[in-house]
Structures are given as structure tokens and as C-alpha cells.
Amino acid sequence: MTKTLGLALAGLLAAAGSARADLQTCGDAQYDPSQYVCDDGNFLCPIVAGEGLSYCSGACYSKFMYTCTNNALTQLTPLAAGTPFTLTVSNPTAAAVDGLAVDACNLRWNLGIETCSYCPTTGVECPVGNTTVVSAPDTAAGSSTPAMDVIVPGGQAVYLDPSGAVGYTQAHSAQIPGGSITGGLVPYSGGGFVNLNSGGYGWAACPPTAAGGGGTGYTLFAVNADNKATLAGCTPVNLKVNPQPSGTIGAWQYT
Predict the structure, then answer these.
(1) Worst-scoring range by mean pLDDT, 18-22, 167-171, 187-191, 238-242?
(2) pTM of the predicted model, to two decimals?
(3) Cβ atoms of 194 and 238 closer than 8 Å
(4) pLDDT value for 140
(5) DSSP 90-137
(6) N or C: where does the chain have the smaller number of CB atoms within 10 Å of the terminal CB?
(7) How many CB atoms lie within 10 A of CB 3?
(8) What is the rounded CA–CA span in Å between residue 66 and residue 83?
């Protein structure tokens, strides 16, 4: 019994020593490089969605929403109203999702599947419809509700449903599920697509086996205080904004 306890204690001490050996030094502090990055040899910033935040004049910031110029933190400029853009997932530590395009299908935003679109069979000329393109909201006029970049009359608005999934309205209908959130979704030039709604914790890519996931590929969720525990098995991600040429139209309608 004594020998067994001694071996167990030795194992614990060895593990602790190994953990300490993994720590690195930043200024006067030690840190875990899997959780933090050291900026300029003195300042610690956390790693969020696989990417270390940057440091600027006493604050850690995300490059998807801010920039640092002459040691001053400045918010990036939202895309101009109506600018067409696509979205790409970013998480350098998650090879399964990093670089995937956001795809519209079954009235949801997904990752790693094909875009679903429709074109009337006669009487109209349609875009190819195999890429998910979004139209930037008019933030200068106070709007923060993007729309799918489509031709169909009435358009297709983007919203967050009560579970946090990103949905868009069916063509010819403005109906959205009760409790959904419209607005608060802003694409930044040179940055990312950010959820500015109160209580937001960024984005998560959920596989079919995770709570809320379904079908094939991944489902995109906006993480918040209410669904954070449910989405614990999902991968945190950022969404990179990719502006498209003026006049780009994604589809007649997305389905």
C-alpha cells in the first residue's frame, strides 16, 4: 500500500513538473502558451477562437473588429451599405473547420456543405447560385440587419433564431421564429463579421453530433449566456469578411 501511494505521488509530482516546464515567461509573469500570447515581451493577451488577441495601449483587442494605429485603438469601419461579401471560418488551431466557407442551406448558415439556391425555370436570368453571398446593412443609417444577396423580390433577411443559429427568411416571406434577434450583426472592412448583441460570446461551429447540430457539415451558432453550456462541444471560431466586386449577386434566392 505504502509503495503504491509512493508511486502515485511520484507520478503526480512528475506531471506537475512537466506542467511547470510548459510554462513560459512574459515580463514578470509565467503563462500557459496554449491559453495566452505574450506581446512585446511584457503583455499577456488571451487566445480566443484559436487566435491570440493583439495588444494596444493597455488593452487586448481582436483584429476582426479593431486596429492599432500610432498606439491608439480604433474600431474598423463597417462595410458600406449593400456591399456584397462572403464569409470564411477562422480558427488556426481547428483544422477541421479553419478556412471553411459559410454556406446557406435549409434556411440556415452552415459550414462544409454546398450552398442551396433556386432559380425559376423560365423568364429570368439567374446567377450561378453556388456561393453564399451576403449584403452589408446600412450601418450609417442605423441598420445592423444584413440580408442575403439575392434578386428575389422582398429579399431574404438574416437573423439569429432563439437557439443562436443563424437563419434567413424564406423567399416571399418576412416571417421569423418568435424570440429571434434581428440586427446587431456587422461586417467590418478588413476584419470580421461580429455579433454586437448584448451577451454575445462570439461564434461556434457545431458538428452534427453536438447539441443543436444536425444533418451534414457544421451548423453556425452565435454563442450567448443562454446557450453557452449547450454548445460546449462545439468549436469557437471567428468569421472573416471577404468583400466581393460591386454588382455581385449571389443567387435568385437561397433555400
Answers:
(1) 18-22
(2) 0.87
(3) no
(4) 85
(5) E-TT-TTTTTPBEEEETTEEEESS---EE--SSS-------S--EE--
(6) N
(7) 7
(8) 20
Residue for grid cell 513560459: 24
d(CA 169, CA 38): 44
Q: What 3-state DSSP class applies to 20?
A: helix
* Contact by Cβ (8 Å): 22, 32: yes
Report the 10 Å Cβ neighbour count for 68.
15
Under 8 Å between Cβ of 35 and 29: no
Query: Which three three-digit cell numbers place residue 43?
Result: 503583455
Helix, strand, coil in percent for the chain, rounding step 5: 10, 40, 50
Cα–Cα distance between 228 and 161 in angstroms, integer?
A: 15
Domains and CATH numbers, the chain: 2-75 (no CATH), 84-254 (2.80.10)
Q: Which set of grid coordinates corresponds to residue 128? A: 450561378
Given its phi and psi angles, is residue 16 left (phi above 0), alpha (psi -120 to 50 degrees) or beta?
alpha
Cell triple for 76: 474598423
Q: Which three three-digit cell numbers place residue 2?
A: 505504502
